[in-house]
C-alpha cells in the first residue's frame, strides 16, 4: 500500500486528508503537536489502515530528523509527503504586530516545512516514480492583502521552494506541487485570532467558504495522478471569493 505522511493532521485540511487517504487504503504517518487528537484519529482510522502517529513540533529540526530516521521499516518508503502544518497569526496591520508572532509564522511555515522536507527527501527519492511532495501554500502567497504581511510572505516562500525543489529533483521521479487554497473554514481563523470564536464565525458567516474536505480531495487527486504528471501549482478559491481592486490613498 502507498504511504502518506501528513503534517498537521490534528485539524482542518490535514485531518480531512488523513481521512481521504485512509478511505483509499493508504497507510498513514500522522503528525501534529496535540497527541490526544492524533490518538483519536488513530482510533477512528486504525481499524481499516495502518496508522502511525508522531507527536511532533515541525519547528524542532532534531526531533523531526529523529522521527523520520526511526520510522518502522514497513512505513519507511513514503510515497507522499503532505507539508500542511502551518498557521497565520496577527491579522492586524504590520506596524501593530508583536515580533514574536512574525517569528512563529516564519518558524512554522518556512523552517518547519523545510525541516520535514529535508528529513523526508532521501526516502521520497528512494521511492522514486509516483512519489510526491504536496506543500500547502495559500492564495496569500501570490495576492497581497491588508494584514497579510509575514503570513503571505511565508507562503510565497513555499511556492518558490517547491519550484526550486523540482529543478533539483529532475530525474528522481519525485513530484512537487504547491496547493494554494483561498478562504477555507477550519480552525485557521481561531488560531489567527488567538481563540476569538466570534471573529472566526463572523468571517465565514453569510458566504460559502471552502471546507477542509474540498482541499483534502485536491490533495488526494494530486497524489494519485499518473506518475508522469506534475501539477506545479493549484490555486483553489471558493466561488464566492474573488480579488479586490487596487486601493488608493487620497487627500
Ligand atoms: N484555512 C484557510 O483559509 C487556509 C487557506 C490557505 C492556506 N491554509 C494553510 O493550510 C494549512 C492547514 O491549515 P488549516 O486551515 O487546516 O488550519 P488548522 O485547522 O488550524 O490546522 C493547522 C494544523 O497545523 C498544525 N500545526 C500548527 N503549528 C504546528 C507546529 N509547530 N508543529 C506541528 N504542527 C503544527 C496543527 O496541529 P497542532 O496544533 O496539533 O500542532 C493543525 O493540525 C496551513 O499551512 C495554512 O496556512 C489555510
Tell me what you see in this structure.
With 251 residues, the protein is α/β, with parallel strands linked by helices. It has a single domain, classed as Rossmann fold (3-Layer(aba) Sandwich). It is 42% helix and 16% strand. The chain contains 8 helices and 9 strands. The protein has a 7-stranded parallel sheet, with helices on both faces. A two-stranded parallel sheet has the order 7-8. Helix 5 links the parallel strand 5 and strand 6. Helix 1 packs across helix 8, helix 3 runs parallel beside helix 4 and helix 4 packs parallel to helix 5. The protein is globular and about 65 Å long. The structure holds NADP nicotinamide-adenine-dinucleotide phosphate. NADP nicotinamide-adenine-dinucleotide phosphate binds next to helix 1, helix 4 and helix 6. It catalyses: 2-hydroxyethane-1-sulfonate + NADP(+) = sulfoacetaldehyde + NADPH + H(+). Keywords: Oxidoreductase. It holds the Pfam family adh_short.
Bound molecules: NADP nicotinamide-adenine-dinucleotide phosphate
Say how many strands there are.
9
Shape, principal axes of CA atoms? globular
Which sheet architecture does the biggest sheet show? Answer: 7 strands, parallel
Q: Report the span from N to C terminus.
A: 64 Å
